[in-house]
Model the fold of this input.
Amino acid sequence: MRALFTVQPAIGHLHPLVPLAQALRDAGHDVAFCSSAGFRPEVEAFGFQAFDAGLDWVAADRSTWTHFPPMPAPHDPAFPDFVVAVFADITTRAMVPDLLTVTEEWRPNLIVREVMEWSGCLVGELLGIPHASVGGNAYSGVDSTEIRYFPGNRFFAATPYARHRAEFGLPPDPEMHDPFKHLHLCSMPKRWDRPGLAAPANTHYVRHVSVERPGEPLPDWVRELPERPTVYAALGTIAYAMRDVFELILDALRDEDVNLILAVGQDPSAFSPQPPNVHIERHVPQTRLLPHCDAFISHGGFNSIKESLSCGVPLVVVPIMSDEPYSAERCAALGIGRHLAPDERTPETLRDAVRAILAGPGYRTRAKELSAEMHELPGAERVVELLTTLALDRVPTA
Done:
C-alpha cells in the first residue's frame, strides 16, 4: 500500500501523524508526506519521503508568511478570522493543484490528513481515493457539526470549504460530512470529550505516542536537579510572543521551593538574572523532560496536553487562543489540572494553582489514572489494520 500524509508546515501538526506513518512503514507499506517546501527538513528528519506542495511557508518562521494578512494578537477579536484564512482558505487553495499532481504521479491508495489540513480530503474526493483524518487539536474526538473552535463559529472553515468545493467541481457539502466520512482517529480516551458532544460514527480511539525530535538529548543538568518538586513551563510554538506570560510565571514561582524550568522559544539572555533554582532555556526536549516533572504550566496545546498526561503529570493551563480554552476546561473538569483564564492571571493566582497541584496526591492520582487509560487504547497494530482496511475496502470504517 502507498499512504500519502498531508500536513500543515508546523511541528504541532506533524507530530500527531508521525506515529501512524511509522506504524505503516514498519508494517512494510510505502509512506510519504506532502507539505510546504520549507518544511521538508522536519519531515525528512523522521526518515520519510517528502513532496513539496502549496505555499512555501513554515508556521514557526514569520518571514515566510508573505501570503497572509497581518497576524493579530492572540486575544484580538480578529484572530479567529486570521486562523481560518491561513489554514482553511489560502493554504488549501494553493495546495490542491500541487497535491493533485503528486497523487496522480505517486498513486497513493490512501490519504491521511491532520484536521487542519483541508486539501487532503478535497483531493481524495476529486480522485476517489479513501481518506482518513487525524485529530490534532483538543476537539479531536468531536463531530465536525459540534466543533466550537471560537465562540459563535459553529463550522470552522465552512465558508472557504464550500468555496473550494465549488471551484474544484465537487457537489455542496453544507454539513461538512465528507472530511470525516471514512475514518477519524483520536488519541485521547472518549471521556476527554465534553459530555454530550457527538463523535463521527467512524471514530476510533487509539493510543497516543509521544514523538521525540531526532537528535535532542535531555540535558545532563536535569538529572542533577535537587530533590524538590520540578515545575516546567512552556507555551508552544508561539512562545517567543508570550514574554509577558513567562514574566508572570517567574514572578509567581522564582521564590518557591521548586526547580523551575522555562522553555521560552527565544534567547534566554533576554530575561533578567534568576536565582539558582530557575533554569531558562530556548528549548528543551519536552517528551524527555516531562517524566522528571511534578507539574506542567502549559498554554493547553493538544500535543502538550497529551504528552503531559501520558506521563501522569498534572497541569496548570493558561490558554492563549484557538482550542486551548477547551483543553483548560477539560483539565479542570476531569480534576487533572487547574485553569487560569486571561483575566485571572496574577502572580498570586498562578502561585496558588501550582501549590494546589503540588500539595497532595489528588491531581497526580487522577492524571495517572487518565494516563493508564491512554496506554490501554489500541496501539500500532490496530492503526495499521484500520488504515489498510480502509485502503482495501474503500468504505467508511465503522
Summary: The CA atoms of residues 65 and 314 lie 35 Å apart. The domain at 220-375 is CATH 3.40.50.2000 (Rossmann fold).
